[in-house]
């Protein structure tokens, strides 16, 4: 790719971004679109527009984003969102601090040298742009000392800001856990791997007597996890008919208003997908079905509670301190029985995973790791091919009929700029669902943990495939013979091929931030879907709300995506310092756009109190180590005699990672007692805490008829017998 | 070494053992020696001889050893000793079960083949004995299948018995911790890394308020660790003068009885070592010194308790459950503050290590590891030389004047048999003290933990230096040129040199068990020292008791020693199966002799409730993996095509180690709550529990004047002010 196609790509991206921003400010002003652009505020019961900014111009959202504080974010979107901004701010901070030194230092060094302009890496990507990179420095040049200093500076800036961020997130987490509000999950622990109950005892009696003996004063009661598959099915069916009934009634009411005063009663077929079977009156049919299903559900609820108890339970304590302590203690001698961990939030419990046994979980984990490994290895091949086809020159050879298209200059430039990146982005969008599914299959008990696990897998996938795969793939295709020499040459090969692919990644980053964030901000896709649904499908208020209810930030793909960009920028920061500018724009625009989205759009679907942070932290350090290793290799390739001067850096990074995890990690896994000790605003309503964990299909229809009392009464009966 | 010198060596060892056994049965019958042969029983207040065996013959001790149960051992010597026997029995069990298959299978296979009799390893050790080893099998022979089967059989026997042993030890530990007896350490936790107290609070107030807030109901009181260096010095001096006074009074009384009725008052000089300075009357001098020191001690005790408080404390709870739970909980968010761990037994607390700070401990650990690494690497050289000189042929060349000695046939044989082994044993006896000192310097809070750490270091040392060092050293010396080829050849080289050194290790093991255990049993050295002391030095009862008080089992060297033997036997078990016989005798005789010693002689100096076991277990598994890897190498050297069939074994071993540590290890680190929950025989006397932790130099002279009350009263004062 030459300079002109690169600039074209940049310009197009920027124009698209500007357009999308204008579209956003125009659309978001229309009150009919409020539910698309301000759903989070509406759901929180707030006015869509902030009181301070009544007069709105296209840049009001930017003002609002800048003036919002971390406290606002925590208040409206939770600690997890705030932690995500800590991540964005830290990435931005690292790049700004590093860039302030690296750009004025390295660019002049590179431009004024005339090293290898002719004998550069082989695939012909050497252009004016490359004059700004380390590839322009002569071999063995003393100017390389400047680049060595840059690597050190970059590393220490990263250590410093990461350390500050980790401490800050730890404070945020502690503050949230200390909060005087009653949070149900802080009063409960999750117990798994319960051994078979002794003869003559029910599961519930067993759990109650076990924990009563250990926590005499603070034990409240327990909830044995049940096999809800069947009751869940009935409940889903019932809810379906309820929705259908509401919809049919709305249609009927509408028809009365519109046409005949007696209206048209909606009809449907009872068979497969409403296509076959007898035609029936929908309202009557649904009412009948609902009347049938309610007693069936109640009967099944009773059966489930009595007979489908599993080897897992939630145990409730009267104090946060007891629950926090219980979750850290070894209860039984054998680690694979009576496993006790912190309870997840009620809304993020993955019920079906709770009864999975210890060894089953271990086995599942390894099987999943193996499958993920295969996935990563398997995708290597297509990604390698994609990157090999990236140059149109190659495409022309393989698909001759593309020639006329390529002849047109403008089109050719655009194609050349975007084709490979588009292929890559589409490619990557296929994977996240699979990874989340696999992570859940490991037996993880909470949604947020599963998301973290999926995010980790996705990160390995992206770094291995996109970064290393593209870099090596591109070079391998051009210098195919090198691979035959020896597998030991992989690291120098990686180092050699880095500068050649710098422009690829520059455009990749640019595309991501301008087009990605433009689409994010303008919410064109959700807007269109909402209006279509509102017009043709939604009849009731509930249906309408469902149509505009936004998702959450989707950390499972967002964070690995950002981390991939960060890894790329890290690795190229010294080789082609101009990428730092792109990184700054990516994280700066990202911070701005997402600040808007978090405050106004996204509704978090769970709260893990920043448990994502150690995960992010480790991966940033990993990116840093990768950067340090490639730099070591690259200096070696440049035949710089003092290359070993870089050896201490990866060692520092490992020590840094070790100290951080040693000092700060445990409080992200366990709740420190001095945090759990803090007083509450009021005595907790334990009945409310308990009820918030009852899964909806088991919640009794009539509020006074608490199914769970049944189970409790068994205990008092057995206690009176004892 | 040829067959005759090997047999001579065996015979001499055996005769020495028989002689020592006879000496033992003769000497142990004399009542005057009871304190040497039955000190443990005497200290426990038992009759030296068991009631059941009044008529004693030379084999009574064997009968007694066999008839004793594990319960007896726990009762008289504690769980640690019982765990040591589990280790011996497991080692014995593995070798017996393996031997039952391996000996009848492999010996015939080896004897009836005539593979490499002439082209064996180069250093001329191939003798009749080697016909029994795998070295006698032809290359690529199908008979090697038998040896493959043997490796598998050996591995699975080991897994099975190790698993049983681990569960059994876990039961022993739980039973001991559940015991209804009050054990002071179960009611206390050790708190380290306490941050600086807030202004206006003493250390003690800080600790008390911190733990009172968290454990409102069960907190009893705390004991802040103090800097005892000076008070300890004064106390030592005082105790020294007290002993001297008692001695002088005994001498004076004796002189009255013997000669003049007024007696001779003993005198001494006050200067250096009693050699210079003014001559004074010892009784008067000591009395004066004691009168001076007592008020000095009391003053210093007050100063220490008030002003020398350190950033560490022992915190006492009213229930075992609370203490067990507290030791597992994260108290402060930062892991490097308020570190809480189980309290060690009072008698094994290393007081000076308690106030060491978190990062200081970490740094010390790495520094110590580095020093140990240097030690291991440094000793490599002398051990290599020793093993190279082992053959007399070499010695003759280097020290010509040894020739006339060597000419004498009998002497030559004995020398040839013992010289290298003796050199090795003397060599190894120099190290343990250094390693224990280094382990304590790491900042470990308890004696038993330091012993475990030292034992681990000693094991690495022995395996690396003795086993691998001797094996490689011997071969390197003879085939010195091979090392120049390539460092990659180390593993095949190790495998090649194994059979050549088999006889060396056979004699090494034989010497260890016959002479070592003979000396152990007969206790000749302690006996002689005791009688000398009694005759010439001891005047008072206390001095006499000090003279015969036995040591403990000394796990720090005993266990690595046994593990070294086990590693050697493991590695040679298939190559030269005859070594299994020797291993069986070593562990069999060891079990017998030590059963006697544990029941009658050794007095354990601490009790760690079997925490040594995971340590032993890991090292047995490591030995097994080393065995599997060398066998893999050795089959490769024999050009056996199906060698890869051995690859799964090390993987199985890793999985086995992982499962064991996952399932069973944590209960050796933390006390499971269901174990700590067990009821006590009686309400614990908390004042007694507290006092048992007061270090002797701080214990008040007068029982009613409790120095610690001072500190406590400070608290009640501050509480009343609040």
Strands side by side in the biggest sheet of chain A: 2-5-1-6
Oligomer: homodimer
The largest inter-chain interface, given as chain pair and residues per side, is:
A-B, 33 and 33 residues
Fraction of residues in helix of chain A:
55-70%
Number of strands of chain A: 6
Shape of chain A: globular
In round numbers, the mean pLDDT of chain A is 80
Main sheet properties of chain A: 4 strands, antiparallel
Q: Structural class of the helices, strands and pairings of chain A?
A: mainly alpha
Poorly predicted spans of chain A: 117-126, 479-487, 711-722
Beta-strand portion of chain A reads under 5%
**How many DSSP H or I helices of chain A?**
29
Gap between N and C termini of chain A, in Å? Answer: 83 Å
């Amino acid at each position: 790719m030459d300079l002109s196609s690169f600039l074209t790509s940049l310009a197009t991206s920027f124009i698209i971004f500007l357009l999308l921003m204008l579209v956003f400010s125009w659309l978001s002003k229309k009150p009919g679109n409020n539910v698309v652009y301000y759903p989070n505020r509406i759901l929180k019961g707030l006015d869509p527009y902030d009181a301070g900014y009544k007069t709105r111009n296209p840049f009001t959202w930017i003002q609002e984003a800048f003036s919002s504080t971390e406290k606002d974010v925590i208040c409206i979107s939770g600690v997890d969102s705030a932690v995500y901004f800590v991540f964005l701010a830290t990435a931005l901070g690292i790049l700004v601090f590093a860039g302030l030194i690296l750009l004025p230092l390295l660019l002049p060094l590179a431009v004024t040298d005339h090293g290898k302009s002719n004998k550069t890496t082989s695939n012909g990507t050497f252009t004016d742009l490359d004059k700004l990179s380390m590839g322009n420095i002569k071999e063995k040049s003393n100017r390389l000392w400047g680049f060595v200093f840059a690597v050190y500076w970059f590393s220490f800036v990263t250590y410093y800001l990461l350390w500050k961020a980790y401490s800050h997130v730890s404070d945020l987490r502690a503050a949230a856990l200390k909060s005087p509000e009653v949070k149900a999950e802080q009063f409960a622990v999750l117990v798994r791997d319960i051994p078979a109950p002794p003869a003559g005892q029910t599961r519930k009696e067993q759990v109650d007597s076990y924990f009563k003996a250990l926590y005499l004063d603070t034990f409240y009661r327990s909830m044995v996890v049940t096999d809800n598959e069947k009751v869940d099915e009935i409940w889903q069916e019932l809810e379906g008919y309820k929705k259908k009934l509401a919809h049919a009634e709305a249609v009927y009411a509408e028809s009365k208003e519109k046409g005949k005063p007696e209206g048209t009663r909606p009809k449907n077929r009872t068979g497969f997908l409403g296509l076959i079977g007898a035609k029936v009156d929908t309202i009557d049919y649904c009412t009948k079905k609902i009347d049938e299903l309610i007693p069936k559900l109640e009967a099944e609820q009773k059966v489930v509670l009595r007979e489908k108890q599993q080897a897992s339970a939630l145990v409730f304590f009267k104090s946060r301190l007891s629950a926090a302590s219980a979750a850290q203690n070894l209860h039984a001698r054998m680690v694979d029985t009576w496993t006790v961990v912190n309870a997840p939030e009620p809304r993020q419990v993955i019920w079906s995973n709770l009864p999975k046994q210890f060894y089953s979980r271990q086995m599942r984990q390894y099987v999943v790791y193996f499958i993920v490994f295969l996935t990563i290895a398997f995708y290597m091949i297509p990604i390698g091919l994609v990157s090999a086809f990236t140059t149109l020159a190659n495409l022309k050879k393989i698909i001759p009929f593309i020639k006329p298209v390529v002849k047109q200059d403008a089109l050719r430039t655009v194609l050349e700029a975007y084709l490979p990146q588009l292929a890559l982005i589409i490619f990557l969008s296929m994977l996240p669902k699979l990874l989340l599914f696999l992570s859940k299959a490991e037996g993880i008990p909470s949604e947020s943990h599963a998301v973290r696990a999926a995010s980790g897998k996705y990160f390995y996938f992206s770094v291995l495939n996109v970064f290393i795969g593209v870099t090596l793939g591109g070079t391998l295709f051009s210098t195919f013979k090198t691979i035959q020499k020896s597998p030991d040459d992989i690291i120098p090969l990686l180092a050699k091929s880095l500068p050649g692919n710098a422009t690829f990644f520059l455009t990749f980053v640019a595309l991501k931030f301008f087009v990605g964030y433009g689409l994010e901000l303008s919410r064109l896709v959700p807007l269109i879907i909402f209006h279509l649904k509102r017009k043709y499908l939604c009849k009731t208020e509930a249906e309408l709300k469902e149509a505009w209810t936004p998702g959450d930030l989707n950390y499972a793909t967002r964070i690995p995506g950002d981390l991939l960009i960060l890894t790329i920028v890290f690795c190229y920061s010294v080789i082609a310092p101009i990428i730092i500018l792109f990184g700054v724009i990516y994280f700066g625009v990202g911070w701005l756009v997402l600040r808007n989205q978090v405050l106004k759009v996204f509704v978090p679907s769970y709260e893990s109190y920043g448990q994502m942070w150690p995960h992010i932290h480790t991966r940033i350090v990993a990116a840093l180590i990768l950067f340090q290793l490639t730099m070591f290799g690259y200096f070696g390739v440049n035949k710089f005699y003092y290359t070993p001067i870089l050896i201490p850096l990866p060692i520092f990074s490992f020590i840094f990672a070790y100290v951080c995890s040693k000092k700060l990690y445990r409080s992200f896994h366990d709740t420190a007692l001095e945090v759990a000790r803090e007083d509450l605003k009021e005595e907790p309503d334990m009945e409310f805490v308990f009820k918030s964990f009852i899964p909806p299909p088991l919640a009794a229809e009539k509020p006074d008829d608490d199914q769970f009392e049944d189970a409790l009464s068994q205990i008092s009966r057995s206690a009176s017998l004892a």
